[in-house]
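In this supplementary section we document a worked example of the pipeline. Step one takes a protein sequence of length 258 as its only input; no multiple sequence alignment statistics are reported here. Step two produces a three-dimensional model, which step three serialises into structure tokens for compact storage. The input and output of this example are shown verbatim.
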Amino acid sequence: MVTPIWQRFGTASYVGIADDLTPYEYAEAIRKVYGTAVAWEELADEAKLLQLKGHLASLRSPQIYGGTGNIEILPPFSKADLAENLDKTKGLRLMGQRFIPDSYMLQQLVFPSVEGFTGENQPFTMVMTPLGPVRGFPRGLDVMSVLGSQRAADTLEAAGDTAYAKYDERLGELNEKFAAFTPAEWNRNLYWSWLYALQALIQERGEGYPNFMCTEAWQDRQLSAALASWAELRHDTILYAKQSYTMVGTAGSSMPGC
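The serialised model returned by step three reads:
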């Protein structure tokens, strides 16, 4: 028997499992509805097809929006819009892009999970929409802040990149979520292990360390090293790790042309 191509890729131990539904999950759903052997005539059975669709709809949704579909979010905007629209992107991917935790972090720290701009000037993260400025671009510093770098959090605040409604709330949720992971959970695959190793670079140094390691200059040096390493990690996995996109907000439904 020839092994299907998607079974011959060992990327799960390197990057993790697919964020979208896989052929395995579709095959299991088909077995539950049609049995182990499917006659082609049964594919025309509308009742069974409807049953299959219902079963597939109950399966897991992706956790990262990868840009699939032309999705526009209508006001009022909230975090619930993210989950609702992620459901709309659910579907089969033959060799789906893998879930990575930093894309998940970035997804949670932009519109619509994070809402309108509350600051002044125009920080890097701000994007104009029909209903005003929102956090449209994340930053690598967001990832470092979630991983525990207070220096990254301070840098973001000084640049005005935290001046958005619900940003602090979402960051707090992420900090709590990822701080609760055990070393075994952090070492589930090589990608997660890499991020876990970076935490040793960015943690603050206290009593017992040399004075120079307790300065802001040293913290900046360590933070820059962590960001550079993280950029290399993203570069190495760009072809199969799922990248996060920011959903589009609109003031009203698109009207068809005449």
